[in-house]
Amino acid sequence: xxxxxxxxxxxxxxxxxxxxxxxxxxxxxxxxxxxxxxxxxxxxxxxxxxxxxxxxxxxxxxxxxxxxxxxxxxxxxxxxxxxxxxxxxxxxxxxxxxxxxxxxxxxxxxxxxxxxxxxxxxxxxxxxxxxxxxxxxxxxxxxxxxxxxxxxxxxxxxxxxxxxxxxxxxxxxxxxxxxxxxxxxxxxxxxxxxxxxxxxxxxxxxxxxxxxxxxxxxxxxxxxxxxxxxxxxxxxxxxxxxxxxxxxxxxxxxxxxxxxxxxxxxxxxxxxxxxxxxxxxxxxxxxxxxxxxxxxxxxxxxxxxxxxxxxxxxxxxxxxxxxxxxxxxxxxxxxxxxxxxxxxxxxxxxxxxxxxxxxxxxxxxxxxxxxxxxxxxxxxxxxxxxxxxxxxxxx
Length: 395
Fold this sequence. Notes:
- By secondary structure, this protein is α/β, with parallel strands linked by helices.
- The longest helix is centred in the C-terminal third of the chain and has 30 residues, at 326-355.
- The chain is built from 12 helices and 17 strands.
C-alpha cells in the first residue's frame, strides 16, 4: 500500500520501519526542518524490546543503553525501600528480553537509521499538517503551505497535539493534570561516588511530588525527572526554569536526590506541563489510523509511554498483513490495542496518586496493597506485539 504518516517521533519511525519491512511504500511527513529528538531518557521493557530486536537494534541497545537491576520505590527523605520490581536477569528470564534504559535521542537516531536504510526517501521534512480528508477511495493530508498528498492510508503519529486526531476522534485539547515535570541530565563524574545511585531505576516518593532517577548513555549520565504538583505552564520540552525553583521543590529530600540537583548545570533545568486525555476506544476510520500519544497520551509514571507507541506500531503492521480489507484490518488493530492502552493510561494516572501520599505509614501500606511487581509481571511485561493473537480483543 501507499501509506502517508504524520509525525516522525519514536512511534512514527517504529511504524514506518515495520511497514517498510512488510513491503509498503511509506512517506513520513514531519513538520520540523531538521530531524532529531529532544527530551529525557526512555525505559524499554521486554514488551517493547521484542519489536526493537525485530528491527535489528539489539547491538545498538547493548552498546548505548543501561540494564538496571531493579525498580526501587523509596520514601523521599528517609530513603526507606517501599517496594521493588526485579529487572536485570530476572526480567530477561521471565519475559524473554532484557529491560533497557536509553536516551530518547539515541533510540530515535537508531530507528531513523533503520528507516533510511529501508528507504532513503521515506522521511520528508518541513511539512506541517493542518487537515486530513478522506473519501471512499483514499485519504489525504493538507499542509500549511498548500501542498497536499494522497495515500491509501494515513497514520497519525503526531503526538499529544495531533492534527490527525481531529479527523478520527475530536478536536478537544489535552487536559492539564496539575503536575509538571523537571528534566535534568547530570554527568556522573560530578557526583561523589558515595552519593551515586546504584544501577537501578529509583523512584523517590513524597508529598505532592516524586522524582525518578536512572542512568543512560552507557551509565555515564544520570537522568532525573521530577514530577511535582504546580500551577499550569507551557507544555514544552525546551522550556528552561530557574534552578532556585528546582532547589525549593526538593528541599529536605534525601542526599542522593540532592546530589543530582546540586550538580546539574543551573541553566539546564527544563520543566514542562504534564497533560492527559481520557482513553478512547475509537482509533481509526476506514482509511485513517492513530497511534502513540496522538490517541493515548500517557503520564510517565509507569515508564510505558514510548513502549505503548512501539507496541502500536508493530500491531498496526501485523494487522495490515491480515487477509482482509484494510478497513476491517484497522478495526482489528483498534479493538486489540485500545483496551490495553487504556489500562496503561489509567494505571499510570493512579501511580501519580500513590507516589504523592503525604503520610509515610499510609504510603507504605498503599504500596503493599498494590503489589506493583506482581501486576506488571503478570500482564504488562509478558505481552508480545510480534506474536500476540490479534483477533482477541483483550489486548
